[in-house]
Amino acid sequence: MKCTRNRITNDPPASRGSCHDLATGVRPGALVRRFGATLIALACTTGAAFAAHPGDIDGGFGQGGFVTNDFFGTDEQIYAIAPMRDGRFVVTGKVTGANANGSGGSENLAVARYLPNGTLDASFGSGGMIHLDVDGASDEGRALRVLSDNSVLVGGTLSTASHSDYGVVKLRADGSLDTTFGEADAGAARKGYVRLDIGGPDVHDNPYAMALQRNGKIVLAGITRVFHDGFWYGQVAVARFTADGVLDTTFAGGQGYVVLAPFFGAAGDTLSTIALDQAGNLAADDRIVVGGYTFGRNTSFLARLTADGAVDTTFNGTGRVTFQAANSGGVYSGLYMLASARLTRDGHIVVAGEGNDRGMAVMRFNANGSLDTTFGQQGRSLIKFSGGADEDVVAALALQGNGRIVAAGSATNRATGAAHQDFFVGRWNADGSIDTTYGEQGLKVAQVSTVEDGAYAVAVEVSGDILAGGYTSRPNVAPHDFALLRLFGDPDRIFANGFDAPPGF
What we know:
Layout: H1 28-35, E1 66-69, E2 77-83, E3 89-96, E4 107-114, E5 129-132, E6 140-146, E7 152-159, E8 164-171, E9 193-196, E10 206-212, E11 218-228, E12 231-241, E13 257-259, E14 269-274, E15 288-294, E16 299-305, E17 320-324, E18 331-332, E19 335-343, E20 349-355, E21 360-365, E22 380-383, E23 392-399, E24 405-413, E25 420-428, E26 443-446, E27 453-460, E28 466-474, E29 477-487, H2 493-496
Parallel strand pairs: 17-18
Antiparallel strand pairs: 1-29, 2-3, 3-4, 4-5, 6-7, 7-8, 8-9, 10-11, 11-12, 12-13, 14-15, 15-16, 16-17, 19-20, 20-21, 21-22, 23-24, 24-25, 25-26, 27-28, 28-29
Protein name: Putative delta-60 repeat protein
Pfam families: DUF5122
InterPro entries: Delta_60_rpt
């Protein structure tokens, strides 16, 4: 059985069959490169090279390269992906339609685990998925970390009927709640989750990013809301919990959390990301770089805190940098809605989001907060694949071990006539130029359904292949379903991730 792609039709292999070790997630071709010529016999056809092109859809994953899951027939979306060393991977997001008490309606935080071939891992939760309803209101998972014992930490929103709180959930390797973690009622076991109410009653606090420090402490970042001149405005808030799920009052001067001053007056800030390296870690000194944007101001921002939650004034002199999508103060960037940020091996900060021409913008900053003008064109790479008013949106970033930058989101597709959004994954070289060896001149647009699709998360697997996760829609049906796409990585996939393990390895 050959693993090679049909170079005339560009069709992927019909099935991985014996060409993929589902236990390890590593292809025989990669094993040959890793362990030497003595393993040539592992190749599916003697002397045949694995010829898939970087950016091609992996047809052996799910159905034709895609996995979709409809759990309850309602709104279901993936927001984060975490690969595991053995080729399995975990996702988190939300499902709607089944409360813990059996009634339907509210959003539930959802976590699912998959085998390397894209089927749900039945040894996790109930048939591969768990959903958590804390108080009969809306809950969702926004960030994810798999620990060394295969337990799972999820950061997200846990709500009551009147307000939403910061929340961290810990699951055992089998998907059950870890009752050694989090809050507890008097005389009872811990609940497996912890909540933090920053803004008080009737105020919605929503976290969107999570990181672990070297000592196992958990950093959660998002927004709280303040009332000013008759309106509610978002402000960035960063909190820290101990490894066993207790608010850490040694952080931010004893409070356990810090609320950052507005970045552009009373305009409303949104936190999008914590900058992590390719292995999902903070910088070696555990300093915390957060990023986001300000509503209605065409302005994005980065801010840096020390490991213990103080504003780090060694970063741009003030602890923050703002950049606008117009040349009217700050840095001219073309980026007005920062979505994701990553740390490179040499300490640079790569950010990406939506440009002011409805395209994609990728920028790079030095460790001190200044714009790195050696990247792209004067610090930025502005790309628009769709035409005219059609929109391309970057939602997530990942880094490969060779420094290449992978971005995922949604791009406008008019192949069927009417415009609709589809998955896209693009790749940039480390210097900010578009990587034309990837996909189709640097971009792969993939249609899951004939309606709307999009990616919110992307990850580089140990094999070097690329997983994107988000949502898909069904014709004439309003709700979304979980959706996943796998694309082939570099030919030397075993080296593509720099031998670094994904988070928790």
